[in-house]
Amino acid sequence: MSSSEVVSIPVEEPIEAVEEQYEEQAPGISLKPVCTFIGPVILSLVFFSMVGVLVRVHVNRMFSYPGVPVFGLIWVQMLGCFIMGMAMRLKGVLLSYSPALNTGITTGLCGSITTFSSWQLLLFQELFNTFRSDHSQFRNFLGGMSVLTTELGCSVAAIRLGQMIGDEVRIAYNYLSTRNAPAGTQISKVETTMFSAETSGHRDGWFAWDKWAKFDVILAAGGIAGVIASTIVVALAPRTRSVSIALLFGPVGTLLRWRLASLNTQPRQISRFVPRFLAGLPLGTLIANVLGSAILAIIYILQIGVVVRPSIASCYVLAAVSDGFCGCLTTISTFAAEITALRSRPSMLYAGISIVVAQSFFILISGIYFKTATVDYRICKDMNG
Predict the structure, then answer these.
(1) Which of 14, 286, 231, 249 is nearest to 112 (CA)?
(2) What letters, b where the CB count within 10 A reaches 16 and e where it falls short, cover 129-160?
(3) Record keywords: Transmembrane included (predicted)?
(4) Residues of the chain whose pLDDT is less than 50?
(5) Rounded to whole angstroms, how far apart are CA atoms 305 and 226?
(6) Domain chopping of the chain, boundaries
(7) How far apart are CA 171 and CA 165, in angstroms?
(8) Do residues 9 and 219 lie in contact, with contact meaning Cβ atoms separated by under 8 Å?
(9) Average model confidence (pLDDT) for the chain?
(10) What would you report as the CA-atom Rg of the chain, rounded to the nearest whole angstrom?
(11) 262-272 pLDDT, tens per residue?
(12) Rounded Cα gap, residues 268 and 190, in angstroms
């Protein structure tokens, strides 16, 4: 790649960032051009993706106990959506430090904490009563609707709450920046622009080490250290092997979702290949969520031993792909932000298509096997104790 070649960097961010310009983002600071090198972005995504996997796994386990009033997954989704809401309002501040930091928090951290595929799996389990609860099919439907509405409603509410808190934090940041500015300094307001394929600007190659910002170096070091540490833990700590392997699979899903996000900002090019009513939707997020859900449906039937009885080693890999790759490939945080940013009809269409298509894959892949097989227990869960 030549040093003068212009390369677009897709960044998965809510389309609301395009529809409205945030004012008073970060007065008193000099905002770097909205462009970056692909090296810091990738390493930032790796680092924050691994942090997101750890947060999701441990928060989900924390709220998974007998008699829990609500399922643990909802707390994971709300946490990631809350952080996303704050990041949306503090975008100018994050960009002023490093575009890679902004991408890492929104696409890497929030996108990896939340997961669309696990939500769809839980919805499928309630609708098909895979837990073998003693109640009617109508109550299966009620259970599924409970999962559907509570997850979606709480995620959207968490986005809004994060935006409200983010506004207050931004105001406080602006006040402190103005107050601490030297006398006679001209305070200018920084407007946030969309860091996307259309506004990413020029970059000199992939790395250009001498032009990295301080935060780029820190994030890159974190990403490299995370990969090395996870590899060592996989080899030396068998009891935590499933989580450690998931940490290695997670960044792969995040980077794939990051690349697919370029479809969110290219509706004109896409309109030639898809129906018009789909061209205006965030197809990158839609494809990532549906693809991850389909893969998780396959993993689910392998984990319960319907096709073949899995070994201990394969259980570790299946759990890693489920929690790591599928969990990071799919996202609720961006999904919730997008449906709140779209107009009412496109929003309902987008949410409906995402959920219906994902459930169709679960029914076609897992539902048929579940209804025709005699094994209905999670072998991998039993093996892992």
Answers:
(1) 249
(2) bbeeeeeeeeebeebbeebbeebbebbbebbe
(3) yes
(4) 1-11, 13-35, 186-205, 383-385
(5) 32
(6) 16-383
(7) 10
(8) no
(9) 78
(10) 22
(11) 888 776 666 67
(12) 29
